[in-house]
Amino acid sequence: MVTYTSEIRDIATDIKSMKIRGAGKIARAAAKVLLLVSQHSKARNIDSFIRELDKTAELLLKTRPTAVSLPNGIKFIMKRVLEAKDSVRDVDEIRDIAGNVAREFIKSSEAAVKKIGEIGAKRIDASDVLLTHCNSQAAIAVIASAWDQGKKVKVFATETRPRLQGRKTARALSRRGIPVTLIVDSAVRYFMNDVDKVIVGADAVAANGAVVNKIGTSTIALVAKEARTPLYVATETYKFDPETSIGELVTIEERDSSEVAPKKGISDLKTVTVRNPAFDITPPEYIDLIITEKGIIPPQAAISVIQQEFGWMLFEKVTRPRIIEEE
Ligand code: RI2
Predict the structure, then answer these.
(1) How far apart are CA 327 and CA 67, in angstroms?
(2) Is the model's pTM score more than 0.90?
(3) Residue that finishes a domain, picked among 114, 139, 173
(4) Per residue in 171-220, pLDDT tens?
(5) At 319, is the pLDDT very low, low, confident or very high (cuts 50, 70, 90)?
């Protein structure tokens, strides 16, 4: 039996309800859960402890299906724990190792966002007008870092229906003194000729360089292409999806209709169906650069990142880190 404290359950529920959201943040929250399980586990032996981590991973992976940062973060931690399994003396030692690896993941994930900001800011010119969509810590890091270097950028932020996360972006940028114009998603084409660069985050990057991000990103990319406005994606390398290199498709999360229209009055009408996909896919031809913490790459180089970062995972068909057999 896994000892789930209320804190652990709350984090899982908050990821599902999107109280905790953003691909990077949910990966860090998942790592924190594994850290808490390691601290609270009452497992008497090494195998039982690993089984507890595995069960917890299963619970976490059910929360949100699209952002690959979540399974990649979990697999990173599980891999390190399993590597240590045969050389530890007892369950306390493996618990310590699991906790330390989870802490290490959280720290390196935060450092990656900062680094993306520094690297990405080099591609922003003084007085650029930028456009961003949804609420991405990585994209905000680039904008904020450019601003901190004295580049007097201005930003269009889309409100991002249906959950209006663009308002969070407007708030975050405004707190730094950055001028922001908040627009409805459908005004993107109206303003695109005033924009120098589009910068968005990612929930997953496929082996062919396609980027999965908040619904509406691919439409913005289309409009940017028409206006010859470059589109940059800011993303940590742990959002690259190794399974796409063996032909797996990224699952697009479809959320409840109530986020789009109230159940009473609209979505209860007999002939009305409400659809609410949370993400879409922007093909590589619409992406100019991908800014990662390891450097800037063209989307076509995504496969190299996957080989370098996740070579160990390739050809291991792991939809969840089921490492040891059920009892
Ligand atoms: P960071 C978000 O997904 C948005 O799609 C955003 O662009 C992406 O995660 C990356 O965010 P959601 O959780 O990791 O709001 O850059 O559905 O913060």
Answers:
(1) 30
(2) yes
(3) 114
(4) 999 999 999 999 999 999 999 999 999 999 999 999 999 999 999 999 99
(5) very low
Q: How many domains does the chain have?
A: 2
203 as an active site residue: the answer is yes
Catalytic residue among 134, 185, 241, 288: 134
Identify the pLDDT of residue 140: 98
Domain that holds residue 12: 6-114
Q: Which residue has the least CA distance to atom 16 on ligand 1?
A: 136
Instruction: Kindly give the interhelix angle for 91-121 and 69-85, rounded to the nearest 10 degrees.
Output: 140
Task: Tokens 């695109």: give the residue.
Answer: 192
Q: What is the DSSP string of 7-66?
A: HHHHHHHHHHHTSS-SHHHHHHHHHHHHHHHHHH---SSHHHHHHHHHHHHHHHHTT-SS
Q: What CATH number corresponds to the domain at position 192?
A: 3.40.50.10470
- What mean pLDDT is reported for the chain? 93
* Same domain, yes or no: 212 and 182: yes
